[in-house]
Amino acid sequence: MKIVITGGSGFIGSHVVDVLLEQRRDVVIYDLETPRYGQACAFVRGDIRDIDRLTRVLAPGDVVYHLAAEANVNRFFESPVYSNDITADGTLRVLEAARRSRAARVLLASTEWVYGSLAESGDEPITEETPCATEPDHLYTSSKIASELFCRNYRGLYGVPYTVMRFGIPFGPRARAETVTPIFLRRILRGETITIHGDGSQSRQFIYVGDLARGNAACIDPAAENQVFNLNGTRRISVLQVVRTLEEILGRVAELEFVEDRRGNFKGRFVSSEKAARTLGWKPDMEYEQAMRAYVAWYRDNG
Question: Are 48 and 6 in contact (CB under 8 A)?
Answer without folding.
Answer: yes
